[in-house]
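tokens incoming
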């Protein structure tokens, strides 16, 4: 498609000029290849960064779809976001499309994005996801709860007392990284190696690809590839009693994908099992400490923990949007988008929509209007494989904090940065008295 060659930066126009921030129609019907109709306004995404929730709220009702780049659209209103997760006129965005939209250079990062099951559809997605489906069943993940509790208690017991430390690094990052290592059969101490590289790779999965960080992302992806490939090959030589051995055995018996693809799927599972839970849990604890009456309520009544987890993921999600591709020209909320367009379904905006939640800008762990399926995990065939594990990790980690560090105090609130894809979190200085 010529448009990708002409405009490698999705935040500039075809002549290289920055997209203006304005509310108004595009210059003429069908300007982007869509059928004639009401075109979404063009918005400079950089204008969202300081206050994304406020920006989404200002746009949501009058402009539920906005264009943010060439052939790229944000969908903001809950009713459309939830419907489009499984709308047959859309499909999961492919890795190739994602690479072209974001002008990602060739290399390990592009190869990972092209290959990982997150960006696959149909039979290819089913084949790759099927390799892991038995490992991440709800029943099996529930059986891991005692193991998660042991890990969480051990980490809380080792936290410094009487001095300031970064909660994200010393607690929130360790539980999910060490648990995904334990589940797969990786040495627990290796979490210190792979976790920082996973966090670097996750920067690639944001609405605006950070080209300034590409060398860091590429190096991290290459190192993760070498690490995982080494772990899999070692199990081909000598079997062990772990998930990776079972995975290699199943793959060897029926190699539905190539070895390099197998490596990329494992990297994807490690990424999904490490990064998003880290940010979600840290922000949940920050929100509870920011609302001391709710922190005290959780300490008094641990039965409130699941509701607190759901509310934290709603109020400040670590996954800000999920991308789909329009298969045909579509009218969404009265606005027309062309076939082939990238639709970024904004979970951030949808979960602050008063059409879905009562008083959506209020953090309330006793909220009783959560939908049965939490939108942050997606919907349909691509719903998060590790949802149950993530919930258990956060529940047991919060319970461990209540038992072992009830007087935890926050010195500065962290910020969740970014407005789509996998969001990043800043350090969270805390102290246990």
């Amino acid at each position: 498609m010529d448009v990708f060659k002409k405009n490698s930066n999705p935040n500039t126009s075809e002549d290289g000029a920055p997209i203006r921030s304005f509310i108004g129609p595009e210059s003429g019907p069908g300007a982007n290849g869509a059928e004639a109709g009401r075109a979404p306004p063009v918005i400079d995404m950089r204008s969202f960064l300081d206050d994304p929730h406020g920006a989404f709220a200002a746009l949501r009702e009058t402009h539920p779809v906005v264009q943010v780049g060439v052939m790229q659209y944000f969908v903001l209103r809950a009713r459309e976001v939830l419907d489009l997760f499984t709308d047959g006129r859309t499909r999961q965005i492919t890795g190739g499309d994602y690479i072209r939209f974001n002008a990602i250079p060739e290399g390990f990062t592009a190869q990972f994005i092209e290959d990982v099951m997150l960006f696959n559809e149909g039979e290819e997605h089913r084949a790759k996801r099927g390799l892991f489906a038995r490992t991440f069943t709800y029943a099996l993940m529930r059986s891991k709860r005692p193991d998660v509790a042991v890990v969480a208690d051990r980490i809380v017991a080792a936290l410094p007392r009487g001095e300031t430390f970064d909660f994200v690094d010393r607690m929130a990052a360790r539980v999910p990284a060490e648990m995904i290592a334990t589940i797969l059969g990786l040495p627990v101490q290796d979490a210190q190696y792979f976790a920082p590289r996973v966090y670097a790779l996750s920067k690639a999965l944001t609405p605006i690809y950070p080209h300034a960080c590409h060398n860091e992302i590429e190096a991290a992806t290459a190192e993760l590839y070498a690490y995982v490939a080494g772990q899999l090959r070692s199990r081909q030589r000598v079997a062990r009693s772990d998930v990776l051995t079972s995975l290699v055995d199943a793959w060897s018996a029926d190699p539905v994908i190539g070895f390099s693809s197998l490596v990329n799927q494992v990297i994807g599972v490690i990424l999904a099992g490490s990064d998003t839970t880290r940010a979600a849990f840290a922000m949940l604890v920050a929100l509870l400490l920011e609302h001391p009456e709710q922190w005290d309520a959780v300490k008094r009544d641990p039965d409130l923990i699941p509701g607190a987890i759901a509310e934290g993921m709603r109020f400040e999600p670590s996954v800000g949007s999920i991308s789909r591709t329009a298969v045909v020209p579509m009218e969404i909320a009265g606005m027309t988008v062309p076939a082939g367009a990238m639709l970024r379904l904004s979970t951030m905006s949808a979960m602050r929509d008063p059409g879905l939640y009562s008083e959506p800008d209020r953090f309330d762990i006793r909220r009783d209007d959560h939908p049965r399926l939490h939108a942050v995990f997606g919907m349909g065939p691509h719903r998060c494989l590790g949802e149950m594990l993530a919930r258990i990790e956060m529940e047991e980690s919060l319970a461990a904090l209540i038992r072992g560090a009830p007087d935890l105090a926050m010195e500065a609130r962290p910020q969740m940065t970014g407005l789509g894809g996998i969001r990043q979190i800043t350090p969270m200085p805390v102290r246990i008295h």
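note: The chain has one domain: 2-432.
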